[in-house]
Each structure stands twice: as C-alpha cells, then as structure tokens.
Amino acid sequence: MAETLTFRELRGERVREIVSRSFGLMLLLVACVVFFSASSPYFLTSSNAFTLFRIASESGLIAIGMAVVIASGGIDLSVGAIFSLSSVMVGVLYTHGVNIWVSVVLAVLVGLVCGLFNGLVVVALRIHPLLVTLGTLALFRGLALGISNGSGIAGFPTSFEFVGQAYVGLVPEQCLFWLGAIVIAVLVTSRTAAGRSLVAVGANETAARFSGVRVPLVRLSVYGLSGLLSGVAAVIYTSRVLSSRADAGNGLELLAIAAVVVGGASIQGGQISIVRTTLAVIAIAMIPNGFVLSDYSTSWQYVAIGVLMIVAVVFNEGLASRLWRLVVRPRRGRTGTSRN
Amino acid sequence: MSALATRTPPRAEDRTPPLLRARWITGVDAGALAALVVLILVFSVTAHGFATIDNARSIAISIAVVACLGLGQNLVIMTGEIDVSVGSIVALAGFAAGPVGVRTDSLFWTIVISLAVGAGCGLLNGILVAWTPVPSIVVTLGTLYVFQGVALIVSDSHNIVSFPLHASAFGTGFVFGVPRALLVVLVAFAALALVRRHTNWGRDLLPTGEHRAAARTMGVPVRVELVGAYLLSGLAAGLGTVIYLGSVGGMQTSIVDSNLALQVIAACAIGGTSIEGGRGTDLAPLTGAAIVGVITAGVVIMGVPGVWISVAYGVCLLVAVARDRVRELVGARRRTRG
Amino acid sequence: MWRTSFRRRGTLVAASVVATCTLVTACSTNTPKAAEGGSSSGASASKTIVLVPKQTSDPFFTAAESGAKEAAKALGYTIDYVGPTTADAAGQVTTLESALQQKPAAITIAPNDPDAVAPVLKKAMDQGVVVSSFNADAAKDARQFFVSQASDEGIADAIVDTMAEQTNGEGTFLLVTSTATAANQKTWLAMMRPYIAQKYPKMKIAQVIPGNDDPATVLQVTSSYLSAHKSDTTGVWVIGGGMSGAVKAQQQLGIDPKKMPVAGLCIPSDVRADVHAGLIKNCVLWSPADTAYADIYAIDAMIKGTYPSTGTGTLDAGKLGTLKIKDNVVEVGDPITFTDANIDQYQF
Q1: What is the DSSP string of A168-200?
Q2: Consecutive sets of 10 residues in chain C, 348 residues long: mean pLDDT of each?
Q3: Buried (b) or exposed (e) across C325-340, using 16+ Cβ within 10 A?
Q4: How far apart are alpha carbons C97 and C123 in whole angstroms?
C-alpha cells in the first residue's frame, strides 16, 4: 500500500487515477465488442445496438442509483425487490380503477418510500446497510408477491406503451430518458455541493461531519434516490412488456453492483463516475446479447461475466497503476517524494 | 474500520456473569438464544402442531445445510470479509460429487470429491482476496458467477436424482433420535470452534477483522488468515453439499437460483456475528440458522398463505437484525438521561 | 504540463474507443436488413428456428430441445436453443429481442409469463417471423399457434383422478405447487377445485404451499406441514416439480408413503427410483420431446403454407401421425400417467 500512497501524492494524481481506474473497463468494452462482432454478423448493427441500449436502460437507471449509494459508502441489495414491488403496484392500482398515469406516479412514489425506509433504518438504527437491505429484499419482494397474489397482471391501455415501447426516430424513448438521467446525474455529482458532500461522506465520514456535511441527510437521500430510480425503471419495464409481475427484477441488484465496480468505483465509497458506470452497464449487457446471437451455451455466460468482472476490476484496482509506475518513469519538477 | 468509529462501551462480553462465560456460550450469544427461545414459545402457542418432536427434527434437517455453510462463512465474516459465492460452491461440488455418488454409492468418495472442490474454490477466493486489492464482495461476486457457470456446464443439464442410500448417510437417518445431519453439523461446529479458540491462527481471526492495519503491525500474518478463512468456508460448503445431497436425495440445476449465500450471511448476522468483522462467536451461525428455520416452519404450520411467507421472513429478519441495536440505543438513552 | 498531457491522453483513449465503436456500427448497416419490415416470404430465407425454453438448464426443456432437433433434422432446419438462465420473464424478453436481430425463420417459446413476451413476439410477427408457443401459452394475439401437450382440463382431471383412486375419493390433502407466480399452476388449481367439488365432494384441500419446483423446498414445507398434521392428512398432491422431496419428507417422519399417497405431476427422472420402489404409485406428465417435435412440424407447415388458414384442421406430424388443430391449438395428445411399468421408457 505504500507504493500507492506515493502514487497518490503526485500532482495530477486525480487524472491519472481516472485513467487507470478506467483501464479495466475499456479493456472489457473493447474485448466484448471485438469478440461478439467476430462471432456474429448481427452484433454490430445499429438495430442491435439500439435494442441493447433499450433493454439496458432499465439496469442503467438502477446502476446510477447504486453508484450513488456505493459512493456514500453504503450498499443496496433491495433494488430488485423495489423494482418488482413498483411494477406490481402499477398493475394492481390500474386494475382497481386508478388512472394509468396516476398509477405510474404512485408506483414511482412507492419506490421512493421503500428507499427512504431503507435509509431510515440505516441512519436511525445504525445497522449495516448490507443487513438492512437483505431484510428489505425479502420484505419488499414478499409484499409484491402478496399484493399481486402471485399473479401477473396484464391488460394495460395502449397509451401506456409510450413509456417503454415508443421510438423517437430510430432511438427508443427510454434511451433518451436514460441519457437525460445520466446528464443530470453527472452535473449534480460533479458540479454541485450535494455531489461533493456525497463523495465526502463516502471517503471519510468523520471528516465530512466535521466539515459541516449533514451525513444522515446524505445517507437518507441516497437510499431514497436508489429506490426512486428503481421505481422509474420498473415503470419502464412494465410498459415495455405490458405485464406486471412479482418475480420481475430478479438478480438486478448483483448486476448493478457489478456494473458500478467494473466501472472503476471503489466499493468502499468516496468515488463516483456515472459515465463509467453507464459504460460498464452497456458492457455487461453485451454479454447475454452476444451469446444469444452467437448461439453459445448460456451456462458459459455466467463464466464469462464472472471472469470478465474479476479481470476488469483487478485491472482497475491495481494492475494499471503498477504498470504505470513501471512504464512511466517519474519526471523532474514534480512535488512529493520519490520514496518507493 | 470499526475501531475508528465510536464504539459503544462496554462490550456485552465484559458484562456477562462468570456463569455464562462457559466454554461454548458467550454473552453475545445470549441475545440470539433468548430470541430463539421466545420464538419457539410464541409459535408453540399460536401454531397448532408446532411443538412436536417431528417438527423439531424436521427443522433440524432443514437448517443443517445453511448451518454448516454458516460455520465457514462465520470465520470469513469475522475477518471482516464476506463470501457470497458459497451457494455456487455448493452447486459445483454437488454436480461434481453427485454423479460419482450415484454410480458408486460410496459416502467416502462423495465426501472426498465434495471437500476437494470446496477447498479448491475456497482457495481461489482466498488467494484473490488476499493478493489483489479487489474487495472481497467483488471477488466473491465474480467467483459466484464463475462457479455457477462451471456447475451448470459440469451438470450438462442433468439433475442429480435418487441419491443412493449409503452415500446419503450424512443427510438421512437418526442416531438415538437425533437426525444425523444435525450431528454432522455439531461435530463440524466443535472442530471449528476448537480451531478458532486454541490455535494461533484461529485466535488471530477476530483481530484481523477488527483492525487490519493494527493486526498487521502486531505481526498477524493477515494473508494466511484470509486464505485460511476462505479455505475453511469452502470446506464447510463441501461438507454442506454432502448433507444436501443426502437429505434432498439429489440436486437440481435450479439450485443456482436459490440465494443460498444470502441466507447463510443472514444466519450469521442474526446469530450475533458483526458484519463489519472483529466481533462474533462460534455459536452464531447455529442460532441464526435455527431462528430462520423456526420462523419458516412456524409460518407454514400457522397456515400463512404461500404468497405471504416471504414477507414474514423479511420482517423477522429485520427485527432480528435490529433487536440488538434497539436495545443498545434504548440502554444508552436511559443511561444519559439518568 | 504533466497534468494536461495526461488529461489529453486519457480523453483521447476514451474518445477513440467511443468513436471506433460508433464508426464500426454505422458502417455495418449494410448487414442483413433486407427482411426488416418485410412480408412473410422475406424471413423464410433463413432456416433457423429459435427455441426459447423457460430456463435453459432445466432437463425438461433439454428433452424438448432434443425432440425439436429430431424434427428439424428431418425437415432441414437448425435449432437455436437460447434462453434465460433463470426462469423469469425478463430474461426471455431480452433473449427474444436479441434473437430477433438475426432474422430467424421462426421463434417458438415456452413463456414464463404469457403477457410479458407479447410485445416482442408481436414485433417478430410483424417482421414476418413465424411465432408459436409450446408447453405454456402466450397471449393469443402474440402467437400464430400454441402446441399443447394436453389440455389443461385433461391435466387437472388426471391429477385429481390419480389421487382419488388411491384414497377412495375422500380425505384431507396438502397441495404443494411450483412457484407462487407460475401461471399454469393457477389454471390447473382453478380447474381442480370445481372438478373435486363435483366428482369427489369428500376430498378437501387443506393447505396450498409453494414448493418452488425445488425438491429441497418441497421437502422442507412438506415435512413442516406433516409434522404438525401427521394424523389428519390423507395424501400429498405435488403439482410443481420436486415430488421426490415430498416422499423424502414422509420417510424422515416415518410415514409410510403407501398409506399416505403422494400423487400429482412429476418428472420421470426425479421420481423413477421412488416409482420402482412402490413409494409412488403413479404420477402424471407429458412428453416435452413430443411436444417440441410436433411444434417444428407445425412451424414447417406454417412456412410452407399447408397450415389450415381457419385455425382448425389437421397436421401431418411425422412420427406422431396426424394431429388435430382446433382454434390454433395443436393437440399433441393426452397426459401420460407414469407407472412402474412404463416409466423407463421416458428418459428426462
């Protein structure tokens, strides 16, 4: 660890850090694109790309929320369950006579409330977020199952299709929405005090508190945001498939965590890059897509995801900076010691 | 990291009267055991048919696998790390050892192969965690996918069925009325508890979790601790696989969907081991698994409609996890007020 | 100087990656787009049929795959067996969206949710791809026909009858289903209840518990239930997967399965040993291989134009003979009752 300390002391360290932490991600993206386009002529088409982005937009939104939560030093395992609960709420409310758009808004609010519940328990009872969200994972999904009585709900009005199935020219509508969310998130995290507080809390909670950052408020908000985004993603999904079910969103939480981590953020918090997280979401979404097009056995998909994840993160975390030190020798005129 | 945060003094262990500081039970366990007793009483009263020997045996068998896995996971959590790949290790060990067990009906070979696979997976986890700067949750998430994929490939989409009689020995049968699966778990518990209390390696587990840098400065071989903990977690998963194959009579490819790792982590946490590391007891996974098993069985016997079972489980998990903290907070407030 | 050169380099790397991807994508728009939005004749240039199971690693569906491949070989198609690794609807939709990119001749699917896959299946039909469902039906307007292994009533009646004959048509029963959300389960349960009320009024379903198609869960819930209700349970119905778990539960509790019959739907490989040992007298299912086999023949008929345009008629299905089609449902036959005598003929 002493070597990385020196590394960090150099001026311009932040930029170098960004590049080295993205190394694994870039490698992964390029590798996926090259491999899959070689295996199938259908992979690198604009039609496939838009299909990919369309489906990935739901995971992308959830990954933004997860990135924010992880940046604050927490974790949220219940996003998939909140997703299923919101999806079920849209269906249940609509079939009970509530206007579809009101149902949508209420479903998103349910997501927000679930997220705030997570935040409240984490902040007020100071229980580790891993355990809290493990419990709410079972609770929310159980609620979804109970409220829907285990049935799927269909029969949505055609106007509802707009959210998940409409196209603006060639571009699917939810991709524009996703892009908008990315832009807002990037602006907020990099240019506002709120964004700085977020990263401060994750990097060093005690220092943040002494700097005047309202830590409980930050914690509460990140979980609320994560829940909100899960609710929105659920609405998009429900519109895309025109069906709402309690078993939706299985496994989304692990994929979101994988995306944040492959994107180069530290799981302990203190770092955030929405753009890199988004690129990681796309890279990970390429894998099932590419496998279907190439007709490779789906069992290998798991192996591929796991290996790529570990390799990408290893490159992000350490290998790159070590290669850097070997390849790029320190130049004259920089501050800091040359202690190795 | 937990040492830097303000710790609520004094620790529960120090307040325990000497009587409870017996060999196997510590003060931290008392809370979880009390919760277990309360739950059993509540269900015995509200769920007709709960308080029977049959039910007790049924619960014991159903929690044996999670308890066994928990024994290993407990060690990993004590060092401040986590292992979410245990479910996939069980799948891989099961599909590797299962066909051999079916063909040879040999308990010996089932155990050997299962433990070998478990050890191999555990070693891989341990080496990756100890030698790369990648956090353990990320490493084991990656290996979760890898082991799962390999398990499905090895299974060749064939389930293991009709596991033969002798090879099933660890999962079936009773010795003096006690299910053999439970006995296996208790033996494993005793062995691991002895290792943890009476070997240098074992005694250094908790310090490794409490403050990694301080432990290193004190001369604790942190890497050895980590690799060892993951190795034991893998071995425990292998043993759990033998119990699973015996009690269920086979294994299905859908086991990869079962979220086994999260159940195991929940069991350790409910039982009293701190998820941040540095605090924990040997009995924790057993009490935790017992609590979860009692709740699941109680809810079924009470006749709760199937769709609401998950809610009941989630609520109980949250309450169990919150219980200690609520008691601390209430206690602290009372002290500052008085 | 240090900082700006790095920033420039870093941005350059990122920008070039993005640019390369976009360029290559844009340049590849000349790859097969010919049939996009085309008529039904456009898609038949391909000889690929995409078969989407509920879950790829489920042996039930790998048996279906082999049945489909047998028919495909005879007719000159190739089968792409792709699908989700977990039995959920979202995974199937993603698979379908991806599969659509390669313009297959036909898509056939056993949907986890009849409605979730409807939008993408409709999109496929608009592009001239033949769409059918098998084993479980999709929304009626999202597929051209459904290959039914047996009618739902037939299945429900068989489940009830096989238990009734072992318990003299009376008693109190535990019912273990598959997952809480499976659609077939609800249908069959909804048909079982009136049939029981009408034909065997002395039979009563005491409790319904999901078994998640998993013998371990079936074992756990059955053993919990039976340890509390040992004396007043007559039999255990299992209509999801994992029947062997129920038998195991009985063995653990010292209950003789011959005195408390276990019946319902089963997978031969799961229960083979129990059936031979007499622990299960009989149980019901159908042949997924035959269902998929008929499916491929029906798809071929649709592509060649020999499929009845009214939706009712007959189908020449190779080794299965002539099958009836009614309202776009291809009926493969009746459910099969497995007994000690015939179970070895079925290897899935």
Answers
A1: ETTEEHHHHHHHHHHHHHHHHHHHSHHHHHHHH
A2: 47 51 43 37 70 88 92 93 86 91 93 89 93 90 90 88 89 86 80 91 89 85 89 90 88 87 88 88 88 93 89 87 89 87 83
A3: beebbbbbbebbebee
A4: 9
Same domain, C266 and C296: no
- What is the 3-state secondary structure of A51-97? HHHHHHHHHHHHHHHHHHHHHCCCCCCCHHHHHHHHHHHHHHHHHCC
State the DSSP code for A318.
I
For residue B61, which residues of chain C lie inside 8 Å, CB to CB?
223, 252
Encode B276-337 in three state secondary structure. Answer: CCCCCCCCHHHHHHHHHHHHHHHHHHHCCCHHHHHHHHHHHHHHHHHHHHHHHHHHHHHHHH
Complex ipTM over 0.85 = no
CB-nearest partner of B306 from C62, C210, C270: C210
Q: Which CATH class is domain A50-299?
A: mainly alpha
Please compute, for residue A41, the number of CA atoms within 13 A of its CA located in the half-sphere on the CB side. Answer: 8
How big, in percent rounded to 5, are the helix, strand and coil portions of chain C? 45, 20, 35
Is there a domain that residue C63 lies in?
yes
Looking at the partner chain, which of C209, C214, C251 has a beta carbon nearest the beta carbon of B300?
C209
Contact B69, B260 (CB under 8 A): yes
- CA atoms lying within 13 Å on the CB side of residue A33: 22
Query: Could you give the C-alpha distances from C190 to B152, B308, C135, C155, in angstroms and in order?
Result: 35, 20, 18, 12
Q: Which residues pair with C108 in a beta bridge?
A: C51, C132
**Mutate which of B256, B300, B307, B310 to disrupt the C interface (most C C-beta within 10 Å)?**
B300
Q: Chains touching chain B at 3 or more Cβ pairs under 8 angstroms?
A: A, C
CA B55 – CA B60 distance, rounded (Å): 8
Residue ranges covered by each domain of chain A: 50-299
What is the distance between the alpha carbons of residues A261 and A276, in angstroms, rounded to a whole number?
10
The alpha carbon of B76 is separated from its chain's Cα centroid by a whole number of angstroms, namely 10
Q: Residue C80 contacts by C-beta under 8 Å, 6 or more apart in sequence? A: A295, C48, C49, C50, C51, C99, C104
Q: In chain A, which residue ranges form alpha helices assigned H by DSSP?
A: 2-9, 13-39, 46-71, 79-95, 100-124, 129-148, 161-165, 173-191, 193-203, 205-210, 215-241, 252-262, 274-294, 298-314, 320-327
Find the radius of gyration of the CA atoms of chain A: 21
> What is the CATH classification number for the domain harbouring C280?
3.40.50.2300
Q: Following DSSP, what letter does each residue of C53-97 receive, concatenated?
A: -S-TT-HHHHHHHHHHHHHHHHHT-EEEE---SSS-HHHHHHHHH
Chain A residues in contact with C140 by the CB 8 A cut-off are none
Q: Which of A207, A310, A252 is nearest to A56 (CA)?
A: A252
SS3 C44: coil
- Please give the tally of structural domains in chain C: 2
Backbone angles phi, psi at C129, to 5 degrees: -85, 140
- Across the A/C interface, how many CB contacts are shorter than 8 Å? 162
Is residue A272 within 8 Å of residue A67, measured between CB atoms? yes
Show the domain range for C45.
40-149+287-332
pLDDT in tens, B1-26: 455 555 555 555 555 554 444 455 55
Size of interface A-B (CB pairs under 8 A): 141
Helix H or strand E segment including C206 = strand C202-210
Distance CA B232, CA B222 (A): 15
Residue A249 region by backbone torsions, left for phi larger than 0, else alpha for psi between -120 and 50, else beta: left
- Is the model's pTM score more than 0.90? no
> Maximum Cα–Cα distance for chain A, whole Å?
73
Domains and CATH numbers, chain B: 27-37+50-324 (1.10.3470)
Q: Is residue C4 part of a domain?
A: no
